[in-house]
Task: inverse folding
């Protein structure tokens, strides 16, 4: 069964460092997302990406964050100058159809980011 | 008012019980309604989705949407210990908006 894969599963970084979280979406999917979940809190939307550009982003997704699809298979989230409050689980998701017709978004297992 | 409200629980039931999980929402633009299951430190796993109002059944799971009341439900029949997880409702306009999740514990 196809699945969204994320690497690494756990990333520890020092405050102020840059991290890149990687995702391989399901191969025939066209819409890609990043969500995050701070421990004990709800899953929050960060950004959606379609046709090689951001289609929507939340207020959390400020200039510290960027996304890229550097090749045909990977989808990355870069966090510059990490802060302690960036510590969270980061989930990548992909979907065959777009958000206005959104039904099935499949999530990866997440990357646990710990900023120390 | 929060866009999506969900009782965080925990909800503890004996094996075999019928479980009712609920969410309310405020945004009438939502058209798609999903239920995800999340095990500890894992990604959300899609269980069911429903478009607009109505019911949908899949095995032991039934999803209901009442758009007039802005209320959605997930029923689990014959609950099993393996159903113990956090259940997240999610709704879609241009992005998925999640509830906080309800932690369910099914004890043998």
Result:
């Amino acid at each position: 069964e196809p699945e969204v894969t994320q690497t690494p599963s756990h990333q520890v970084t020092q405050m102020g460092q840059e991290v890149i979280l990687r995702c391989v979406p399901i191969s025939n999917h066209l819409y890609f997302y990043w969500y995050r979940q701070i421990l004990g809190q709800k899953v929050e939307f960060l950004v959606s990406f379609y046709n090689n550009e951001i289609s929507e982003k939340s207020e959390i997704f400020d200039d510290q964050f960027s996304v890229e699809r550097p090749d045909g298979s990977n989808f990355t989230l870069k966090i510059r100058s990490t802060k302690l409050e960036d510590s969270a689980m980061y989930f990548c998701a992909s979907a065959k159809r777009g958000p206005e017709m959104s039904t099935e978004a499949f999530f990866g297992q997440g990357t646990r980011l710990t900023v120390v | 008012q929060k866009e999506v409200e969900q009782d965080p629980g925990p909800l503890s039931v004996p094996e075999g019980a019928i479980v009712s999980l609920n969410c309310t929402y405020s945004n009438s633009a939502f058209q798609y309604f999903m239920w995800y299951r999340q095990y500890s430190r894992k990604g959300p796993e899609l269980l069911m989705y429903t478009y607009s109002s109505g019911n949908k059944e899949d095995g032991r799971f039934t999803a209901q949407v009442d758009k007039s009341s802005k209320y959605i439900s997930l029923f689990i029949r014959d609950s099993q210990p393996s159903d113990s997880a956090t259940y997240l409702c999610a709704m879609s306009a241009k992005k998925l908006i999640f509830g906080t999740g309800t932690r369910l514990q099914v004890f043998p």
Remarks:
- The first strand of chain B starts at residue 4 and ends at 6.
